[in-house]
């Protein structure tokens, strides 16, 4: 089924304005990526939405070998950062 949508416009920077009807149909959001696929005759373009990736998509994939105490890790990071800042301040004197 072919459907003609309102045409988009390309700017001098190569940015393409996608008609609101198409954005709604494909459920596109700001930051989403699109793949443009040329068909055999190099004249027909298929657009495939590629959703933006989020760190939330990978949470839990890697399993820790041992349990971690995140409060201790955060405290250790604060201590290391304080040492780094102190060292830089001493070098300025």
Automatic annotation (TrEMBL):
The keyword Mitochondrion does not apply. GO terms for molecular function: DNA binding. Residues 5-52 form the SpoVT-AbrB domain. Pfam families: MazE_antitoxin. InterPro entries: SpoVT-AbrB_dom (IPR007159), SpoVT-AbrB_sf (IPR037914). Gene3D superfamilies: 2.10.260.10. Keywords: DNA-binding. This is Looped-hinge helix DNA binding domain, AbrB family.
């Amino acid at each position: 089924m072919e459907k003609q949508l309102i045409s988009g416009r390309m700017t001098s920077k190569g940015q393409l304005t996608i008609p609101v009807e198409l954005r709604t149909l494909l459920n596109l959001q700001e930051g989403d990526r699109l793949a443009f696929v040329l068909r055999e005759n190099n004249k027909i373009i298929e657009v495939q939405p590629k959703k933006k990736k989020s760190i939330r998509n990978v949470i839990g994939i890697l399993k820790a070998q041992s349990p971690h105490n995140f409060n201790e890790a955060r405290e250790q990071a604060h201590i290391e950062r304080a040492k780094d800042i102190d060292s830089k301040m001493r070098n300025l004197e």
